[in-house]
Every structure is written in structure tokens, then in C-alpha cells.
Amino acid sequence: MADNFTSLQIENRVFKPAKDFSARAHIKSFAQYKKLYNESIKSPDKFWAREAKNELVWFKPWKKVLDWKPPFAKWFVGGQLNVSHNCLDKWLGTATANKAAIIWEGEPAAPGKPGEERTLTYKQLHHEVCLFANVLKKHGIKKGDRILIYLPMVVEAAVAMLACTRIGAVHSVVFGGFSAQSVADRVFDSQAKMIITADGGFRRGAVVPLKKNVDDAFPLNDAHGNPLTKTIEKVIVLRRAGNEVTFQPGRDLWWHEEVATVDAKCPAEKMDSEAPLFILYTSGSTGKPKGILHTTAGYLLGAKMTSKYVFDLRDEDVYWCTADIGWVTGHSYVVYGPLANGATSLMYEGAPNFPEPDRFWRIIAKYGVTILYTAPTAIRAFMKWGDQWPKKHDLSSLRLLGTVGEPINPEAWMWYHTVIGKKRCPIVDTWWQTETGGIMITPLPGATPTKPGTATLPFFGIVPEVVDDQGQAVPRNSGGKLVIRKPWPSMLRGLWGDEKRYKEVYWSEVPGSYFTGDGCRQDKDGYFWIVGRIDDVLNVAGHRIGTAEVESALVSNSKVAEAAVVGRPDALKGQALVAFVTLKTGITPNQAIRDELRNHVAKEIGPVAKPDDIRFAEALPKTRSGKIMRRLLKQVASGTEIKGDTTTLEDLNVLTKIGSADD
Ligand code: PRX
Question: Cα torsion for 442, 444, 447, 451, to the nearest 10°?
């Protein structure tokens, strides 16, 4: 496997773009990348004005490219456009109209069996979106109203998103793996008027009861006893899994019945460049998830340009991003980026290993997928499952591979390169975040020499820097905090309804710069090596989880007195969640309580946040000022020798009292 390199040998290897790839690529050489990059930094107004004009269809031109009153940015001020128009109407009357916009594969029933299939051309997708947009209008949804989308990976998820953008409603997609409580919290924070859901979704042969979770969200109250979901007027339910659901008359409506009542004529609303487009909740280091706000023009430009240049999209590509639309990757690189480019985007409903671990390779061979964009966690799982699964299938259609979500270890990179890419396909390791809207640090496949484990260099217009605690740039090869020095079009515009927190979280750590929360180092060639989060956010299997959120879920259980959650390295998931818990006096720890607490977290947040390990302690190690000593807990969690100053520990003994995983 992977030529038997050690990590260090791999890190020092450089892979130059192949000549025949570069010859056909949008950006054909490193010199061309450098020239465009320098222009984008030196004359940003000129650069972005040209790109916005070339890439997007405008109803009304903008007056000013950027209005920057730190930390608030407005891009393409005064302009008007519509996202759904740019993704759909733009292609009507061209050859793209009859091209597959979305190829969908449902979860298969049994080994060797294909899943259900559905293909929608741009023309058909436009039709579906117009119909559903009219359903939204029929129920009183207007520009600026918020709509929660809680759907499985089905075509209707993209239809619902695009329908919102068509009439100027603001969508907030909630990952199908999140709980009723998470649905209720997000409805409350966004004050949404409508929920779009399904009876259920399929996952590894089981039905995820989405509608039931929505029903369970309705009785949940805030601290004052008011229902969290009181703003919801209608729930539209897609028939997907066929499971039984209960309906509240007057509130709940079937998708298929509603679309039968409207026509398909629905002009796209003229939206201001800065009109809110979507809110996506993501975990931070404190409190409940934050509503990241993205707006219309800048976001779309970022999603479109990065899709085009990073994935080097060509007309004949079958492009597959495996992310769920519940995450930002699904927004930018399953829906908006590819459709704005007139590309064919593949959507898969199920898991990579159901019913067998060759699911991905089977799909690639079946549809002739040319570009695959997935997460390091998935790649490590494929490595573990063995080479025999990809080897069973013809992967020769692939021409480009991508990764996102967490640092990719060089061994996984080499496996991807060798076993999947057959040493032919460039790999783009793309660093970005929910907040950044689009890819920020990445190779361009025809231009940038790659090294396994680094996302390499910034995309056009992006100015990242690695800095010390004072905000000063650190020398090459020293670690520091990753910041972004200048605004960029697809940056978040704020946190929904919380200007103060927006300033605090992103703009106060290093004044004047956007703080990413990631640690990083630049090597001698200026390549950025992302180390991972340096705040209290964990990256578990590419999912972002706030330790504070899991802690508050744990202490909301009546048996728990105190909890601290830290990460430990995990060979498969990148990081695993370890919870240190003290129980209330008189309660004796045992396996049943451990199981109860794990399920409690799943109920409060979702199964993705379940601690991998719960360790009981009589007390948690604290400094004299009462702060939990997380550094120590991290060392205990990962089984490393305890280092550093422990003299401020209030009670050194507590460390010895922490129980192991098998209490
Ligand atoms: O720590 C970085 C990691 O994922 C975080 C962002 O998570 P989220 O907002 O959920 O978005 C994930 C998909 C864009 C970052 O702060 N991360 C993302 N991509 C990479 C990465 N770490 C290293 N290398 C990457 N390519």
C-alpha cells in the first residue's frame, strides 16, 4: 500500500500537475495562477468587478464592488440578481437545458443492487423549482422569511433550497442526523415560518423518522415555558420512506398534493446583492450553534468560481461531491457551485458502506464519475475496509479527486492517489469553513504542485497569514493561528441576530483580521499546513462539534453534576469525543449510566455528538480560579504522559480518581 512511505518521506514529496491535465485546465500553469492571484490582491476591485460581470447574470449592475466597514462587508452594492436564475434560467435556451443537472441515486436495498435512480435535466429542475416556489408563495412565504429544510439527500432537498432562493426566502438546512431539540432551537433562533421535511429518510437500511422528530420539536419550550417553534405556520412533508406519520390538520401538508395545486410559472425575484440567502448553524467554542449568515451575490460568486477553478469543471464532467446538503459543503459544492456552472452534479442518498463497502466505487463505475470530492474520514475508512472493494470496479473515468473537512494524513492522501486515482488524478485538498462560504486554500489542479497533507496556497483574492498571539506574522515553519487579512466576497456577513458575538468570535482574537479558529504552519514554499482547531471545537469525522454544546447536553441530565469534554486523536475519525463526568452525590457510576448519557446527548444534539468515551470522576481538575484544566484532561484522554505545570491544580488527587473507559 502507498509505496511504503513513512509520513516524513511522503510530506517531502512534490507532485507536479501532469502536462496533459494542465493543457486542458482552466488555469494551465503555476505562473498563470500567480499572475491572477497577484492581480486579485493588488487590484481587488478590478479583479472582482471583472469576475462578477463574467460569471453572474445581473438584473441590475452594482454601483460599488466593496463597502468595507470592518468587520462588516457589503459586496457589489446596489446590484440585483437571483441565485435560482443563475443556476437554472440562465441555461434555458442553451444546450445545457437538456443536460443532466442532478443525477440522483437512492440507497440500495441489497448487495449488488442499484439504488433507485432519478435524473433531472436543467429544464426539469427549473420546472420543479418553479412549482415548489409557487407552493411557498401560496402559503404566504415572502422575501426575507426563514424556512427550515430538514430533508434526506433527495432531489427535493435541492429543489426546496432553489425554490427559496427563487422567491427570496432564506433557507436554513438542518442535517437529517440532528435531533428534535436541534430543530426546535434552530426554528427559535431563526424565527422560521415553515419547515420542509419528509416522512423519513433511508440510512443503512433503517428509516430516519424525520417527520416524527419535527413533531417532537413542537412541545419543546424555552426557559420561560414558551414553545420554541411558535413561529411555524406550515410543515410541508415529502413522501419518501413510506413510513407512517401523524398529521396535524391545517398545519401539515403533503408536498405532492401541494405541487398539484399550483402552476409552473414563477419569475425569479430581483434580490439585492446583500439580501440574506441562507443561515447555516454551526458549532462554536461557546453556547449553542451559531447561525452563519450568507448573502446573495458574494456567496454565489465564490461558490461558482471555486467550483470552476478548483474542480476544473468541464462540460462533460460527472461531478460527485459526497457531502450531505445539511453541511456547507453540500450547499456550495452539491447545489449552488456546480449548478451555477451548468455542471452535472451527482447526489447519493445513502452511506458509503451500505449494503457493502464498495458503494462509492460502484456508483463511480455506473455513472462514469469524473470528479470525486469527499472527506479524509471516508478515505481512511475505505483504506481500512481494504483495496479489494475499489479494485472490483472500473474507476478509469475519474480524472480529479478532492478532499475537505479535516486535515488529510499523508498516508491517506497516498492511498487516495494510488488506489483510487491510479497515480493519474490530481488531488485537491481544500481548506475552508462554513463561515468562508467557499474554498479558501487549495491547489488548482492544472497549476499547483501538491504535497500530501497540505491544502497548499490561497485561492484568488484570499490573504491568509499565520500569526502569533500578538497578531504578528510568524516566520516560515513556525506554528501559529490562521487568520485572513482581507474581506472576500463569500465571507459570512454575520451571525443571525447576534452582532456582538460575530465581532467577538471572529474579529477580536486578532484585531482587524478574521480568526479562523485553526492552527497552521507555512512551509518553506509558503504552503499552508492546517493543524486543526485550536479553540474548543472538535472535528469528529469531519463534523464540527463544540465541546461546550456537548457539556451542556450532559449536564442537562439529572444525574450529572459536572462535565468536561475534550478530543483525543482517533485513527479513523481524526478526533474522538471524550467526556469526563462527575455524577451527583450518591449516584454510583456504571455502564447503564454511561449508555444513558450517550443516548441523552444523541437526543439533545444528534447521534453525531455522542461521546465515544465517558469517564467518570469524583471531581474535575480545576485551577484555583475554578477553570477546568482541559489541557490535562486532553492528556488523560489521549493517554499521554501528563506534562506541564500542575501547581495551580486545586486538587491534584482528582487526576488519579478519574475512571477508565471500562469502569
Ligand atoms: O478545522 C478546519 C477543518 O474544518 C473546519 C471547518 O469546519 P466546517 O465549518 O464544518 O466546514 C467543513 C467543510 C468546509 C476548519 O476550521 N477543515 C476543513 N477543511 C480542511 C480542514 N482542516 C484541514 N484541511 C482541510 N482541507
Answer: 40
The residue whose C-alpha atom lies closest to atom 14 belonging to ligand 1 is 433
d(C-alpha 391, C-alpha 626), whole Å: 55
The C-alpha atoms of residue 272 and residue 291 are separated, in whole angstroms, by 21
The four Cα atoms 515, 521, 523, 524 give a dihedral, to 10 degrees, of 70
> How would you classify residue 242: left for phi > 0, otherwise alpha for psi between -120 and 50, otherwise beta?
left
What backbone torsions phi and psi does residue 448 show, to the nearest 5 degrees?
-95, 120
C-alpha cell at position 629: 484544566
Tell me, in angstroms, the distance from the centre of ligand 1 to residue 658's CA: 32
Place of cell 448553524: 281
Q: Does domain 463-534 match CATH 2.30.38.10?
A: yes
Query: Which residue shows C-alpha cell 420554541?
Result: 228
Mutate to test the pocket of ligand 1, among 539, 543, 545, 608 (most ligand atoms within 8 A of CB): 539
- Give, using CA atoms, the residue closest to atom 6 of ligand 1: 433
| CA gap 203, 206 in Å, rounded | 5
CB 322 near ligand 1, within 6 Å: no
**CA distances, 231 to each of 23, 135, 144, 186, 307 (Å):** 55, 19, 14, 11, 36
Is the minimum distance from the CB of 635 to ligand 1 under 6 angstroms? Answer: no
Q: Greater confidence, 265 or 645? A: 265
DSSP 8-state code for residue 332: I
Given CATH 3.30.300.30, say whether it is the number of domain 541-657.
Answer: yes
Average pLDDT of the residues of the chain? 94
Residue type, 628: I
- Rounded Cα gap, residues 291 and 278, in angstroms: 9
Q: From the CB of 516, is ligand 1 less than 6 Å away? A: yes
Q: 359-398 pLDDT, tens per residue?
A: 999 999 999 999 999 999 999 999 999 999 999 999 999 9
DSSP assignment letter at 336: I
Q: Is 65 in the pocket of ligand 1 (CB under 6 A)?
A: no
Measured CA to CA, the distance from residue 462 to residue 442 in angstroms comes to: 11
Taking the C-alpha atoms of residue 101 and residue 271, their distance in angstroms, rounded to an integer, is: 24
Q: Does the CB atom of residue 407 touch ligand 1 within 6 A?
A: yes
Q: Which grid coordinates are listed for 450?
A: 501538491
Task: Tell which atom from ligand 1 comes closest to the C-alpha of 434.
Answer: 9
Distance CA 399, CA 317 (A): 9
Nearest CA to 392 among 431, 427, 366? 366
Q: According to CATH, where is 2.30.38.10 located in the chain?
A: 463-534
Q: Measured from the CB, is residue 513 less than 6 Å from ligand 1?
A: no
Among protein residues, the one with the nearest Cα to ligand 1's atom 18 is 405
Helix (H) or strand (E) holding 22: helix 19-24
Name beta bridge partners: 615: 580
Closest approach atom of ligand 1 to CA 455: 26
Cell numbers standing for residue 92: 434555458
User: Going by DSSP bridges, is the β-strand pair 64-69/201-203 parallel, antiparallel, or unpaired?
Assistant: unpaired
What is the best residue among 282, 380, 430, 433 to mutate for testing ligand 1's pocket, by most ligand atoms within 8 Å of CB? 433
Cell of 158: 435541492
CA end-to-end distance (rounded Å), the chain: 38
Cite the residue boundaries of each domain of the chain with CATH code 3.30.300.30.
541-657
pTM here?
0.94
**Chain segment 175-213, per-residue pLDDT in tens:** 999 999 999 999 999 999 999 999 999 999 999 999 999
Contacts of 117 (CB under 8 A, 6+ apart): 103, 104, 105, 106
Provide the 3-class DSSP secondary structure of residue 575: strand
Q: Quick check: helix, strand or coil at residue 74?
A: strand
